[in-house]
Give the backbone structure.
Amino acid sequence: MKSSIVASFSALVVSAAAHGGVLSYNLGGAWYNGFVPYNNPASEAPSIQREWDTYDPIQNPTVSTLACNANGALGKLSATVAAGSKVTAYWNAWPHTIGPVITWMAACSGSCTSSSPSGAAWFKIGQAGLESGTLSTGHWAMADLVANNNSWTDTIPKTLKPGNYLLRHELLAIHTSNAPQWYPECAQLTVTGSGTASPASSYLASIPGVYSMSDPNVNINIYSNDNAQKTTYTIPGPAVWKG
């Protein structure tokens, strides 16, 4: 299945060379197709992924499309996944290697196939940023994504209470000075299990709202004299909720 999805994107050479997005998912061992941009949405096969229409990044952290990309239209399906399962997103051949990788979830109001992300309370289930070296020449999580077949895996907390959730994978590319690039993708889940836990308010954030161009870890020049030799980077937003 994965090879057929990659083939469908190979025709979009010019666009794909610039940036990209998630092509497919492996959720608890089951494969799911992603939405295919640049196609007529009416002709798309039903997908768990919310619509995204372009390979271009979002560069304004205050726009509503930061939640689930543009235009973020509802997916037609939801994937049933047990709490405690590994969830993996697969991107196109990803061109960027500098910046953090973040995985979020948010409870849907009712079914995710009819729920808007507006007003959702997002919580992180995983994140990674600068892993070694300096901001300008060090090893970032996004480089790990590229090395791992353009994929990223996190685990749904086992204690998370059952329900309908959005799963949001996000890349924040900061290779261009003072011009952050967000690449968000949302998939629709029905989480099963016997958990009873939900994250406390200190773990929750609004999207948009969590990012600001006044944050020096967002509006950043990693090559400046002040930053180039720094060996730490604070990923914006709340801490990861582990259940």
User: Anything to note?
Assistant: Helices lie at 2-10, 13-18, 141-147.
